[in-house]
């Protein structure tokens, strides 16, 4: 059986879905995500999420502690540092930060809760057992479907070393690896329909945007359509990209002015 929480953590940490050498080439200068960097920090997509917490979360142990406090779940120790040199201070009050550190409406489906468990389960120094509910597994599955669906819009073949992936994330089963292999092999698709749970619209968009190279015209077109489908306004879309340190998407113009 596929463990979607484990797969989610591995995909987030490895950044295997993007068809470039990392997001750093598309980061916005001066943006939180841009300061943290990308795969160069060794944290993949997570670097953009930590950047959205206010110039970098500093120590990942602090990040995991904070998202667990905000999103519920158990408290564990994760001894891994980002290379952002950022502060370990509070949330910058943005959309992404609120999703990571908010109270998650008490439904157990907060991004912070899922992210904390998905990261911790891959740490060899994790002493406390990680409890994963069926609801959380379903939550991870929905987000993974959105991430792979977005990544499939890119034309270039992903260069994933699955032997190294297995070594780096030994808790992944052969079935987990097979799932990643199958889904990441999808290329050049226009993007099929995905099932989005009510309340996960912003999470779905954020993880989709982190799963593509926004310099790709196909990926840009997909993200624009996805935002419309999810009811995310161009203004909110721009805010999310800015907080994550991703390049802004071109907005339609009318008479020379954005519409």
Q: Identify the overall geometry.
A: globular
Instruction: Give the overall pLDDT as a whole number.
Output: 73
Helix content: 40-55%
Into how many domains do the coordinates divide?
1
End-to-end CA span: 47 Å
Q: Runs with pLDDT <50, length 5+?
A: 21-42, 55-60, 70-91
Total number of helices: 12
Instruction: Tell me the structural class.
Output: mainly alpha
**Major β-sheet profile:** 2 strands, antiparallel
Strand content: under 5%
Per DSSP E runs of 2 or more residues, the count of β-strands stands at 2
User: How are the strands ordered across the major sheet?
Assistant: 1-2
State Rg.
17 Å
Summarize the helix and strand pattern as letters: HHHHHHHHHHHHEE
Ordered list of secondary-structure elements with their pairings:
Elements: H1 4-14, H2 32-36, H3 45-51, H4 60-71, H5 95-101, H6 111-120, H7 134-151, H8 162-168, H9 174-184, H10 201-209, H11 217-230, H12 234-244, E1 253-254, E2 257-258
Helix pairs in contact: 1-6, 1-7, 4-6, 7-10, 10-11
Give your account of this protein's structure.
- The chain is an all-alpha fold.
- It has one domain (4-248).
- Helices cover 47% and strands 2% of the residues.
- Strands 1-2 form a two-stranded antiparallel sheet.
- A hairpin with a 2-residue loop joins strand 1 and strand 2.
- The termini are far apart.
Keywords:
single chain; about 260 residues; mainly alpha; 2 strands; about 45% helix
């Amino acid at each position: 059986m596929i463990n979607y929480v484990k797969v989610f953590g591995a995909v987030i940490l490895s950044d295997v879905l993007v068809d470039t050498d990392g997001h750093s080439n598309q980061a916005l200068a001066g943006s939180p995500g841009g300061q943290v960097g990308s795969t160069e920090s060794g944290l993949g997509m997570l670097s953009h999420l930590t950047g959205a917490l206010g110039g970098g979360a500093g120590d990942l142990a602090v990040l995991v502690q904070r998202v667990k406090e905000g999103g519920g779940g158990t408290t564990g120790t994760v001894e891994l540092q980002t290379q952002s040199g950022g502060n370990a201070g509070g949330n910058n009050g943005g959309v992404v930060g609120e999703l990571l550190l908010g109270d998650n409406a008490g439904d157990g489906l907060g991004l912070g809760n899922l992210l904390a468990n998905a990261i911790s389960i891959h740490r060899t120094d994790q002493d406390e057992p990680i409890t994963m509910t069926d609801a959380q597994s379903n939550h991870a599955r929905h987000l993974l479907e959105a991430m792979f669906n977005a990544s499939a819009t890119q034309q270039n073949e992903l260069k994933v070393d699955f032997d190294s992936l297995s070594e780096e994330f030994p808790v992944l089963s052969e079935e987990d690896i097979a799932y990643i292999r199958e889904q990441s092999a999808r290329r050049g698709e226009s993007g099929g329909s995905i099932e989005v749970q009510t309340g996960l619209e912003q999470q779905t968009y954020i993880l989709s945007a982190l799963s593509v190279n926004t310099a790709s015209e196909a990926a840009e077109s997909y993200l624009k359509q996805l935002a419309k489908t999810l009811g995310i306004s161009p203004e909110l879309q721009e805010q999310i990209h800015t907080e994550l340190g991703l390049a802004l998407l071109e907005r339609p113009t009318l008479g020379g002015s954005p519409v």
